[in-house]
Structures are given as structure tokens and as C-alpha cells.
Amino acid sequence: MFSLSNPGVVISSSSSHIIFLRRPSLPCYHIKPSSQFTIPRSSPTTKIKANIDEKTPNSPAPVILQQEDEEDDVQLSSNNKEVEESVQLLKKAAKTRKVAATEIISAFKLLDKAKLDPSKFCETLGGSESPGRTWMLMFTAEVNHQYFALHMKGLKSGKYFPITAVQRFDAAARRIENGVYLGPLGCLTFEGRFSWKKRILAFTFELLRIKIGPFNPIEISIKGNDDSEPTTKNPFFIWLYIDEEIAVARGRSGGTAFWCRCQRVNAF
Fold first, then answer.
1. Residue 151 pLDDT greater than 70, yes or no
2. What residues are paired with 220 via a beta bridge?
3. N or C: which end of the chain has fewer CB within 10 A?
């Protein structure tokens, strides 16, 4: 799992203690609109492509508000407009990486407050067929834990994720894969299973793959003896917004992040 409070990858999910890999000093991979870019030559076929359509940057994404009570039409219209503006701001951030962190965090808070209908989230995130869909981590916001504990909010400054980190979600098979790709140095991926309930995706990892330079990858089983369905006792994401281009989620620690749809990575 990518940490939403400190960038990295969870390498142990068997307890409440989370272990992270330190981030190496590597070049930053930027998503460029409607163009491909290749992770350095460890694998000439490894390509990632943003799925944001530059031809219609201002076209609003379909937004459905979940209404628990009857609302005034004017208020509903205002909510839709604010949600659409927040979504467009995040899509601009995915293309340019130049939107200020404070604006992105404000968009996160608005999408959280909006309580959007999650009924299509799982299929949009993971597709209807295996191997599912892949998403590049774009931005993570940390949480002030003291403030969060008191007020259930309190995101502080965040930043664009500086290395190539990609997640694959397979809604049909209920599988998840997290990967960090380090160019010619190699890559590290975790694969496992997930469960879905309303807007919560809980997951557990079963297989670790490591590739170093030109050598063949190594696979290590980390499954353990627990075959039960993942629950909120495991790591989880609470999804705030998902469409065909971007996805926004809050992690177990309270930190929040957003991803941009990309092509599948073939690094092994």
C-alpha cells in the first residue's frame, strides 16, 4: 500500500505497524497530456500513458450526488458546480503538475464533503474484465494526526508523488497490485486480493515481486495463513471520487491521494 502520509510502499500488512521503504533519489516522471513516456531502459516495452483527453479539458465529468434527504434545487445545483470544478482542477493537476497543493487539498475536502454516489466506483476503478485497470499515483496529502483525532479532518500540505508508482485494480477477480518502478534499477510490486463494501476497498497482499537491473524477477509469497476476506482491520481505501480519468481516496491513516488512469505496466 502506498502511504498517504509518507510516500512509500507497505512491505508488511500483518499488523498495525506499517513499514515503509525509503524513497530513493530518482528523477520525477511527469504525466504529459495525450503522450507516452517510457520509464528508463530496464524494459523497452514499459510505457505509461495518461488517459486524460486534452481535446476536451473543460468538459465536466458526469457527477451524481447521493441524496439522503430532499434538498433544495438551488443547493443541489451549487453542489454539482463545486464538485465539477474540483474534478476539473484535479485533472489539470494530473496534466500539468502545476496546480498548488493548497488547491488540491481544498478539492479533496469538497469531494469528501459531497458524499458522491459510490455505486459505480468499483467497476470504474477495476473494469469489468481481468486484468483490470491501472492508475498512476499523482499526489499525496499528509494528515495532522492530533487535529485529525479531534476533528476527523486536518489535511496539511501535500506534494506530487516524485517517482513512478502504479496500482492495478481488477474488479472482476478482486485483485490488487501495487508497483514502484525505478527505471534501470528495477521495480518492486505487491499483489493480493481486495474486498469492496459501499465505498471501502480493504486489501491484503499475498505475493511480492522484486526485479533488480537486468536480472530475472524474484517472487516471494507473503500470504500467511489467513484466507479470510479482507476487512477494515486490514489496510483500506475510502474512495471519494472515481471517473474514467482520475480517482480520489482517503487511506486508513486519514491521508488522501489522487491517481490518474494510465496504461498497464509490463515490467517483468
1. no
2. 208
3. C
DSSP state of 2: B
Close Cβ partners of 73 (under 8 Å, ≥ 6 residues apart)? none
**Is the CB of residue 212 less than 8 Å from the CB of residue 182?**
no
Least confident of 71-75, 88-92, 191-195, 233-237: 71-75
Give pLDDT tens digits for 102-111: 999 999 999 9
In which element (H, E) is residue 103 found? Answer: helix 101-114
- C-alpha–C-alpha distance, residues 254 and 158, integer Å: 13
Helices 73-96 & 101-114, crossing angle to 10 degrees?
140
C-alpha span between 83 and 242 (Å, rounded): 12
Give CA separation, 101 vs 10, 74, 98, 133, 141, in Å. Answer: 24, 30, 9, 27, 8
How is residue 211 written as a grid cell? 526485479
Residues 89/92/94/98 CA torsion (nearest 10 deg): -100
Cell of 8: 512509500
DSSP secondary-structure letter at 79? Answer: H
Tell me: pLDDT of 46 over 60: no
Q: State the pTM of this model.
A: 0.72
